[in-house]
Amino acid sequence: MTPLLQVSDLRVSFGRPRREVLHGISFSIAPGQRVGLIGESGSGKSVTALAVLGLLSETAAVTGSIRLAVPDGDGPTGRQLEVTTATEKQLAALRGDAYSMIFQEPMTALDPTMKVGRQVGELLGLHGHRIPGGSRSRVLEMLREVDLPEVGRIADSYPHQLSGGQRQRVLIAMALVNDPVLTICDEPTTALDVTAQAKVLQVLDRHFTQRSAATLFITHDLAVLAGVVDVAMVMLEGHVVEAGPIREVLADPWHPYTKGLVATSRLELARPGERLPTVADHFDRSIPVQGLREVPVSWEHRARVPGRPGGGA
Ligand SMILES: Nc1ncnc2c1ncn2[C@@H]1O[C@H](COP(=O)(O)OP(=O)(O)OP(=O)(O)O)[C@@H](O)[C@H]1O
Ligand SMILES: [Mg+2]
């Protein structure tokens, strides 16, 4: 089956002189597959997400290949769109429809001057879907689906009248309203408290399960990832250093950076004054990072950097 997303040797650089921030990453996502992307701040997770949907700024130089399957209403067509050379019009036809994204910052992704119900409704009209019973009822249904209370009142509210958790759920409603085949979630719960976070993850998990929808789920929190995805990629300094089934990655981390992540995420509460171990305790920053070369297509086996973990061959 054609994968939904096929990324090959993707490199992204910014500025003058050019600074490369993604150093040739490769992976693919099959229909219904849930792929996690984990890594520290600045490792290149959001740049990867934005590149996939052709949303990087003009200042970004992109090489390599990013292919998205082009589905029609009835399913896959076998056609693929090369994102790196696609026109804005071709990309716009896929975004918010077959492919959607939930951004890190709910406030910046919502229009502060428009009631949220209308913002969800406008997306419905955008791609020419016919809505039985009208768009208002579909909007309310969608707000209910993301577990928002008093959906009538919420739909008639402006973003600033909602809590952070409610805003994030509105964004999720917007991302899911056109029933996408793949949703990129870029740290959708980072800004939320633990209760709101659990609720949002539950809503997403339910959606992916019911619709057999795929996701590229980005987080720096291993515990969050473990509950949502089947397979995971570990990113470090613009390289994918390890990839495979999430259970295997958790049970038997291979790269020193992953070892550090797993060890620190299993911590019990430390006693007052006790120094908490950090990822840095497991990982020598002075050793140059090497990335995976091959594409983990089937994801059945672990993919590891050849040679010494984290270092040269
Ligand atoms: N528009 C831009 N111009 C220049 N550099 C950028 C731009 N966007 C991202 N970068 C750089 O690319 C690198 C990767 O950034 P990215 O936003 O992907 O990190 P991240 O893994 O998403 O981190 P976080 O967990 O903090 O969100 C960083 O060094 C960042 O400074
Ligand atoms: Mg980010």
Structural commentary:
The structure is a single chain. The strands form 2 sheets. A 7-stranded mixed β-sheet has the order 6-7-8-3-9-10-11, sandwiched between helices. Strands 2-1-4-5 form a 4-stranded antiparallel β-sheet, covered by helices on one side. It is an alpha/beta fold and 313 residues long. It is built from 11 helices and 11 strands. A hairpin with a 2-residue loop joins β4 (61-72) and β5. Helices cover 32% and strands 25% of the residues. The protein has one domain (5-105, 180-304): P-loop containing nucleotide triphosphate hydrolases (Rossmann fold). α4 packs parallel to α7, α5 (135-145) packs across α7 (164-176) and α7 (164-176) runs parallel beside α8 (194-211). It starts with a strand and ends in a 9-residue tail after the last strand.
Globally, the shape reads globular
CATH topology: Rossmann fold
Structural class: alpha/beta
Question: Can you list the strand order of the major beta sheet?
Answer: 6-7-8-3-9-10-11
Cofactors, ions, other ligands: adenosine-5'-triphosphate, magnesium ion
Overall radius of gyration: 20 Å
Give helix % range: 25-40%
The total domain count is 1
Quote the average pLDDT: 86
How does the major sheet shape up?
7 strands, mixed
Tell me the name of the CATH homologous superfamily: P-loop containing nucleotide triphosphate hydrolases
Percent in strands: 15-25%
